[in-house]
Amino acid sequence: MSSQPIYWPHTLVTWATSLFEARGTDLEKAASIASILVEGDLLGHDTHGLALLGPYLRKIDEGILKPTGTYDVVSDRPAAMLWDGGGLPGPWLTAEAVTQSGNRAKELGTATITIRRSGHIACLAAYLEAPAREGLIIEIFSSDPSVASVAPFGGTRAAFTPNPVAIAIPTSGDPILIDISTSITTNGMSARLQSQGKRFPGNWLLDASGRPTDDPAVFDADPPGTIQLLGGRDAGHKGYGLTLLVEAMTGGLAAYGRAENPTDWGATVMVRATDPEAFGGLTGFNHELDWLANACRGNPAIDASSPVRLPGERGLALKRDALEHGLVLNPAVQTDIAQLASETSIALPQSI
């Protein structure tokens, strides 16, 4: 039995919604942000769930994250749109883009929405399950043009963010939910380990001279170290290529990114929805993907105690367990939200 408090997830959503409303956020946006943050924790992405609640609230207090208003439509064609988010909350903007691109894809086959000047968008996997269960393929790319922590392959100075990519792939059962970065690890995990004085399990970082290290303290050096690209020293050229793709599909398509040298923490985002019915049909799509899923799960494992699983399988299992038995938060997150509750008159929900 965990010594940490256990919460019903919906009570955490209600509590977080109240905190955003107390900062002047309208109910629709407050509930959307809260739901996405808690979904991140439900799926096991605990550096990008309620861990972001305090930073988001502080950005509202600083006037960087806008709690009310709507986006501007810069360009609108049937299968392609560009929005200017104007600093509105990224979870609300991205959830809206998933819904609207999905609706258009059901009519047109595919639709893409790019968003510039969005707030930070939290856990990308948190947007995937619902549209995938409707039979849609969803792709989300994100970059933060105000931050750099990843160097180009062969370089020693940061030029990019970890540039996450998320993809939802429907099957006749649980969807495949891919959520990866184009670097080995994330800024969120680096910051958590650095604050705790801990190290990574491998040499996932580079110091300022390009030497591999496991110590996140290199970010405090002058000049600072960087996060290694996906593939590391041996195959990081592959992560480098994917990083450039994300930059092109976000900042490039939005015509707003690093060249503008923004300073506010946020995101440039691309959301693309594809409806298999417009191609070979969802039944045929599921037939192919079900075969592939079964071939992966049935593959002889290197370690018999650790069978092959599909991306998202563990996260969905964690979510089902939390919905049935309650959610235990990461101890660092529990400490953070307890501090937030102590600073306001809005108490934490009762634990189970």
* Coarse shape: globular
* Integer tally of domains: 2
Q: Helix-strand pattern, N to C?
A: EHHHEEHEHEEEHEEEHEHHEH
User: How do the strands of the widest beta sheet line up side by side?
Assistant: 2-3-4-11-5-6-7
**Helical/strand content category:** alpha+beta
Low-confidence stretches: none
What name does CATH use for the topology of the largest domain?
Answer: Ribosomal Protein S8, Chain: A, domain 1
- Number-wise, the strands total 12
Q: What is the overall pLDDT average?
A: 97
Quickly name the level 1 CATH class of the largest domain.
Answer: Alpha Beta
Which range does the strand content fall in? Answer: 15-25%
CATH architecture descriptor text of the largest domain: 2-Layer Sandwich
How would you describe the overall organization of this protein?
By secondary structure, this protein is of the alpha+beta class. The protein folds into two domains: 6-184 and 228-342, Malate/L-lactate/L-sulpholactate dehydrogenase, NADPH binding domain (Ribosomal Protein S8, Chain: A, domain 1, 2-Layer Sandwich); 189-227, Wheat Germ Agglutinin (Isolectin 2), domain 1 (2-Layer Sandwich). The chain contains ten helices and twelve strands. The strands form three sheets. The chain has a seven-stranded mixed beta sheet. A three-stranded antiparallel beta sheet has the order 9-8-10, with no helix packed on it. Strand 2 and strand 3 (80-84) form a beta hairpin. Helix 1 runs antiparallel to helix 2. The radius of gyration is 20 Å and the shape is globular.
